[in-house]
Structures are given as structure tokens and as C-alpha cells.
Amino acid sequence: MKKRILLAICCFAFTFNGKLGAQDIEANVQDRLQSFFREYTTTTVNIGTCKLDSFRINHQKKKLFIYADEKFSYQPFRSETVDAIYRYLKQILPGPVNYYDLTVVTSGQSIEDLIPNLYRKGKKDKSRLYSGLEYKGEPWVTRLSRPYDVSRGLEGKHIALWQSHGRYFINKTGEWGWQRPRLFCTTEDQFTQSFILPYVIPMLENAGANVFTPRERDTQKQEVIVDNDGAQNSLYLDVKSRKAKWEQTGLPGFAWRKQVYRDGENPFVSGTARFAPTEKKKDKAFAEWIPDIPETGDYAVYVSYQTLPNSVSDAKYIVFHNGGTTEFKVNQQIGGGTWVYLGTFSFDKGKNDYGMVVLSNESKQKGVVCADAVRFGGGMGNIERGGETSGMPRYLEGARYSAQWAGMPYPVYGGREGKDDMSDDINVRSRMINYLSGGSIFNPKDKGLGVPFELSMALHSDAGASKEDKIIGTLGIYTTDFNNGVLGAGTDRYASRDLSDILLTQLQRDIRSNYAIDWTRRSMWNRNYSETRLPAVPSTIVELLSHQNFADMRLGHDPNFKFTVGRSIYKAILQYLCGQHGKDYVVQPLPVSNFAIRFGNKKNALELSWNGEEDLLEPTAKPREYIVYTRIGRGGFDNGVRVSSPSYTVKIEPGIVYSFKVTAANRGGESFPSEILAAYKAKKEKGRILIVNGFDRLSGPAVIDTPTEAGFDLTKDPGVPYLYDISLCGAQTEFSRKQTGKELGRSGSEWEGMRIAGNSFDYPFIHGKAIQASGDYSFVSCSDEAVESGRIPLEAYDIVDYILGLEKEDRQNNPASNAYYKTFSSAMQRALTAYCQSGGNLLVSGSYLGSDMNGSQGDREFTQNILKYAYGQSITDNRSGNINGLGRTFSIPRLPNEYAYPVTAPECILPTGTAFPVLTYTSGNQSAAIAYQGNYRTFVMGFPLESIEQETDRNAVMASILQFFQAKK
Known about the structure:
The chain is α+β, with helices and mostly antiparallel strands.
């Protein structure tokens, strides 16, 4: 009996001590895990303070499951990151647990499962890939006239993306307004457009993709619609062939019955459409749309048609435009009953037989082609809400109104039945994509138009401000908790996290590499947002930066930054989609440099040359070939000629100005274009002129950055956008840093709706036309880099015309500090000095050639001793643009406008030595230009010659300058 009691006591003691030991271990594990998550940081992303939710130890199976809070999932996971986390946890955990198999779970997933497929070294997660999902039909639109092939880019891919919000009707107040406030000279509704339209969409399309955006993409305010149901002053006609005639489909089509449409009215059900059977022979039936263009300019061309039971996938459209003809193949088996974008082209004012769209019934397939309306231009908003339209160009409106004009069913854009336009606008972006893609391989269960979109991305700018001028940075958002965790085709919704991660990774990498700035990567949120919940395809929101934060916007307004962001987004989408399909990719090249034109050795021949650029960040982005585009006279550019080497010889007709631009291409697509150079061969040549384009500058607005104030001064310098700027709402009115996060950045509305002209990179043509009008001089042109490198010797030319425009070294407004915009570099100073000393004739014009050369003794000596001028002052006291001299009074634009870049600060330049003033500013009678004649001659203007508003004045000024140069020395 005593033995039994003793045994029982011993057993009790053993059990008690065993439980106590396990409790001690768990308490130790909990303490160490809590400390680990509390102190956890990463150098790549700012995710805040994490914490341990719980853990579970299975001693029998020797496993430890660690459950972290959701914040831990906000970071990007890579194989090396996951290995490091597990390795460190094993080091800090007590024995024997540190020998157990560890699994860290956050947001319902193990951290190793959160590694994107693209970055995995081993086995892929096939549930997130497009395994077996390969669209084998024809693309929605194919540009047949493209002179290069894309085989390792985005060919055949369909992508949807959009630029945040837009002008909308505020139901509570009965007024139209922006969805975000006016801060730092912009609103989010406008700001994100300045990334998507000029940069992201062209880059994706250059890679071969079909890109769709729910908001209007064309910034052209004019709109012309030509339709079989009535074309106003325009002309529609269809012509039958011997075997095929056009007939009415019997289904509703588009008709423009009214100027203003009310909520729920669908223009695509109030008209008719025509169809004709297809033929393979040459004598074909065709339909023709000839618009009456209200003013010369660039117009997006949209076509429409009905998808009929026997529609073909190769309907042939031809666009006749100022640059010639461009052919397209449209898959009419998908996307019927809405506007289908072909491209943007230059058209002359009026009705012209060289400005129209033609649809042929030629096809390799037996079936029918359908003809409905064709639209030219983006137009003004025409949806009435509260008794009035927005009064803005359609591209500034929210997607809700573009969707209605595009024929979307009312439930797609009017889910709140006209009671809450803001919610409708948020939802319509995704619903429009689902309707367009319904019935496709990527969205087979929804009813729709069958367009095979593979992903969607929304670009926003988030809120938040830092009083320490720190970057707020980029945030990604995706949604997994919807539709049982799968997308429309059954793909795991964590494919959206992969997309978000790749985008944020690429953005941080590229921005840090290009700007030497510690760009902040914020979190990846798995949240219930409409734009990431509703799409049937992988989707993400990229909150690029904070429009409320000065440090972010200082970068955000810079066009160079926008190019970097655009290229980064394009590269991320390229990597993601190629990874989804298990294909290799090639990144499209960077633009070429050192572009130059010389007169050739043969009669009437020109020799073009340039350099291909290496991309240090992308080893695949090497040029493989080049495309040379030609413009004749005032026409548009043609479809381009492919050449294999960085040079090209072309024969020209005397008496006509020719213009050229060059792109680089490879298997991944085509680069952005070079600057535009021009050349002209006079019929009776009495001299040769070299035009040097030195106006490369791109810049955001003038920066104010003091201990007490921060912001942007549009009055001093509104910046130099790439081609145009649609992001500015008006001047900033609140600069006090005390108002950070409150009123700092508050801005006006006076520039809303204005497509502000920027650097067109097309000024040799303007100068050249003035030379052509002035006499029998021939001319060629080159980039300033071609002169600085010694490729183009100046001494071969009787006259050199150096264009400086708004060029200036401006590190304050150039946050990258890696773009060199000095008016006269050291190499250029040496080249111009040698040219002058050889007896040359030099014309220089620009707005900052005085102040930009006033910072050092060496620069001042060059301008005063060689060019014969000194800096007086900048003309900023008024907005008068009148200038007197050379027997006339003419004007230059001083304020932002839609036609020519503004010269906000022309300069007074003073003659030195025996030089003399030749032009004066009307206000103050200060010297605007000087001339010098000695062993060589100079004519220097303190404003850009190309900014003279009237062509007749510009021609007269150029004629006087050339007469001065040709006078006997």
C-alpha cells in the first residue's frame, strides 16, 4: 500500500513538472516572438509596427505555427527574406522548439506562399498562373502598318488601366466638382492622367498591347462623328461591289440624335448599322467616313460596329491622314456596340479626300463586316446631370460619363440609379472591364463583349503629409476575400498580390536608381476596395505618392520622373504577364541620342545618323533595329521605315521641308521617339545653314522651398512638360509650412480644362520654315549632343542657328539632378568659339541664355567676349509680350496656353564691345536682342525665335537676320 502511494506521488510530481516545463517553454516562446515582431523592420518597405497574433506548438510532430498580424503581410517576401526570417527565429527560440519545423502565417498565408511566382527560385504556384488560359483568337485591334514585329513583348495582350477619379456630379450639392481637393497646383483627378496618357499607355502599346481605359483618352476638345444615320456636315457613304452590297443589320446601332444626353440614355441603341458579305478579291465593297474637321490638329479615331453571328476577325480599316494611310485589322467578333480606338492621327481642317476612314469588305474569312459610326476626337462632356454638363473636356470627366457615351448598359455605370454618381464612378471602372471581357477566356461566366482582358490596374495618388519633408511613397492594394478567393477564370486571387508586389518592387527599384532618392515603399494592403474586388481579372491599385505631401509632389510634377514611373509600370506589367504565361520577355529600348542630319554626297541626298542607347537597368533593352519616320511639309508623319543600323540615307525633293524622327526597336517593342529634325534643299542654293536643337529641357514648376514656405510658383515658371500638360488646375495660394497637412498647397482653378503646350521637340521645323520663306538657303539640323561630341563640325556651314528655347540649368526644379540642361556646356562653348573665330555667322535665341550664363566668370567671359552680350535682367514685371524692332512690332506668349509654350521670363541682354541692340521689349524699352559684326557675326535674342506668335513676323525677323549675315564683312 505504501509503495502504491509513493508511486502515485512520484507520478503526480512528474506530471506536474512536465506541465510546468511546457508552460515555461510556451511563455518563453511567446515572449521571444512578441519581441521579434515588435522590433521587426525591413529596409525595403515601411509597414509600421507588427505584432504576434498567436502561435501553436505541436510537440508530437515537432512543428511550430506562428501567426503574425496582417501588417506583417504588407511587406514583399522573397526566398532570401523568408529564409532569413526562419533562420533568425530558430536562433532566438528556446530549445527544443528551435529544432522544430517553423511556419509563419500572415493574412491567412504562409510567408513562403506570398513570394510572387516571378521571384520564386523553385516550384511555382500554378493556381495563380494562367495555366491553360491562352487566348488564341485575333487581337481586338492590330496595326498592320507597323514596320516592326513584337515577339517578346505584349503582343496579343489586352490590358485595362485607368487614372483614378475625374470630374463628377455631386448629388448632395447639385454641382459638378472634383473628387479630390486642389493641392500643389493639381488635383488627383488630373494628376494621375499626366502619367497614364502621355507615358504608360504609349509604352504598353509600343510593346504590342491593346490598351483600354474607361476614361476618355483623347485630349482633343473637338469631336466629329460620321455615321450612316446622319453625319452633320460630314459624309458617310457605302459602295457595293459586283457580288456584295451593304444592307441594314436590323439591330440597333449608334446615332447622334442630340447634343446633350440625360442619365440612362444610350446613343448606341437609337440608330442603325450596315453590313456586307466579305470577299477575297480586289474589287471590293467599302464604307467611307469623311469628317468635316473643325480645326487642324491631332484626333483619336474610334470605330464602332455590331458583332453579328458571322462577323469576321480581320475587318480591314484604312485611316487616311496627313501622314498618308495606316491600315488596321479589327476583330469584329468581339467588342461590338461601343467605341473601339484605332490610333491618333493628324487631320487638316475641313473635308478632305486625304482625311477619312475606309472599311473594306476584303477578308480571308467567309462572313460579314459591319459599319457603324466613326468618331474623331475626344470632345467635350455631353452628359447632363442636374440640368447641366460638366463644361469640361471629356477626358477630365469620370468614367461614369465616358461609359454612357460608349454605349454601356445602365447597370454598368448607373448602379445607384442616378442618386450617387461618385459611387457609380468608382464602380463603373471595374464593371466596364467585366462587361467588355464577359464571355472571354479570362471571364467566361459573365455576359459581355468577349474582349480578353488579362489584368487591370488603377493609378491613384494617396493622401498624407510629412512635416519633415519625407517621402510618403507608394502603396499597393489588392483583394482576395471575394468570390471564394478566385477570379473569373478560376485563377487564385493571390495573383493580384503578385501583380501589386511586382509593380511596387519595380517602381522602388527604378526611382531609387534614377534619382538617388530613398523612395519609400509602403504597404501592400489586402483590402475590400471596389477597383480590386470587382474585376474578374487580376487587379491592383497603385497609390503612387501623396498629392498632399510637398516632398512627393516635388518629384511628381517633374516630366522626367513621370517617364521613369511610366517605364517602370510598363516593365512590371510586361514581367507579370510574361511570367503568367511562362514566356521570356525583352524590354523595349530607350530613345536614341545624338541625332543628326547632314547633306549627302549624292545630289539631293540626306544622311541621317544617331546613337542607340544602352539601359543600365535592363540588359534586354538593347536596340536591334530602328524606325525612321518622315513628314513632308506640314503633313503628318508616315508609318516609318525599318533600318538595321543607326544611319539612313534618303533622297528628297528640292523646295520642300522634310522632317524626321527616329525610334529604336527590338523584339520587345519600340522606344519613345527622338527629337524631330528638319532639312531643306533650296532649288537655287546660295548658302547652307545648320540648325542645332539645344532645347531638351523638361521640368516641373518653379519650386519654393524655405524653412517657412513650400510649394510651386507657376508665375515664375510653370515648368516645361513633355509635349503638353493636363495636370495643372491653377496657381498655388497657400505656402505656409505651418499649414502642412491642412491648407498647405491650396490652389486655384483657373487652368482647369487647358491642355498646356510644352516642349514639342519640333522647333527645327519652325526655324526651317522661316529660313525657307526668307531666301535660297538650304538647311539641315542636329541635336546639340551631336555638336558637343564632335560628330557635326560647325565650320562646314555658312550660318549656325542655335535653338535654346527654355533651356537652362535648374537643379532646384530638377530633383533628379541627372538631366543636364545647361544652355552652353563647356563642349558647346569650345565648338562655338572655334566657329566664330573661323569667321562664322551665329544666331542664338532662348529665354535663359543670360541668367543661365551669369553664375561663373568663365561663362560670363564666353558670352561677353565671344557672343558679345551680357545679362541685364529677366522681364517679369508684367505680362506684355510685345517686342519692337527690325521695322515691326510682334508678340510672344507670356502665359500658359494650348498652342505654344509660354515665355514667362524673357531676358534683357546688353551688347558688349561693338555690338548693338536691335530689338527692344515694348514695356520698359529694354534690349531684347543684340547684333555684332566683326571678323564674325552674332545675332543673339533674349527670347526664343520660335515663340514669335505670327508666322509672318517670324519669317520677317529671320529674313532680317539672314540679310545681316550675308552683308559684306
